[in-house]
Amino acid sequence: MPSIAIDAPLIHTYSIVARDPATGQMGVAVQSHYFSVGTVVTWAEAGVGAVATQSIGEPSYGALGLELMRTGKSAPDTLRGLLAADDRRELRQVAMVDARGGVAAHTGALAIAPAGHVVGDQFSVQANMMLRETVWPAMARVFTDTRGELVDRMLAALDAAEAEGGDIRGMQSSALIVVSAQSTGRPWIDRIFDLRVDDHRAPLGELRRLVAVRRAYIHMSAADRAFARGEIAQGNFEYEAAERLIGDNPEMRYWHAIALASVGQFDDAAPMLRELFARDPNWRTLTTRLPRGMFPLDQAVLARICALE
Prior knowledge:
43% of the residues lie in helices and 21% in strands. The protein is α+β, with helices and mostly antiparallel strands.
């Protein structure tokens, strides 16, 4: 076999691209013994599709793949065209899913073994340079059998890969993107999850922790909207969910208390604020600096808050 010069990232890894038929959400998730794997492998756009490009990773498969699917091309047609134009296609491992649920995958003959993929109903799992050839079948089986949100099913697939031995070199980084079914034209809103663990001894555990943190902020945003509509019970429910997910971080509890004080429920807010002020007096200082237009805290309420002992 002739020698091949390698001038692209060696992204030997396992990953999944998938679409949730119930919600239309699309996503891509990956883990590798490679620094900052998410900067190369993971690509997704709301209303368009998701791409994983690995082995001898070529980021243009992500950028061009999304561009072509944005014009209405299916994932199979898109991947077929990109591979035809790539004289190094036998080095590549690529998978794509489009907004209609079409899926395509390619594992080049020169991907480091064990290497392979499984294409299922609106998903594809793929891996190369694994410890065992059971990795990607296990990913497909667990993803298919797991119930719940797309993000949870993809995390389960990554865990299944690692349980089979995963990357022969071990773990280093992970990443996950989930986008909405339809584009709003504002990508920062359309990306429900956009998380990366660039260098960690246990990247899958850290990725799960970050998913929980992100969910806490999703609940907090829902709480703020509920309070703005005057739906206090729903707002309390959402804030309490956020507080459970965020753990020891006091952020959610503080804004919950401020929201309660803003709608006249000072007696409910006071114990929460006392606890926070005792823990860190900077929260009291912050309260004095809140812009009046941001929260309807009149001067009398603000004075009562600042006088709390």
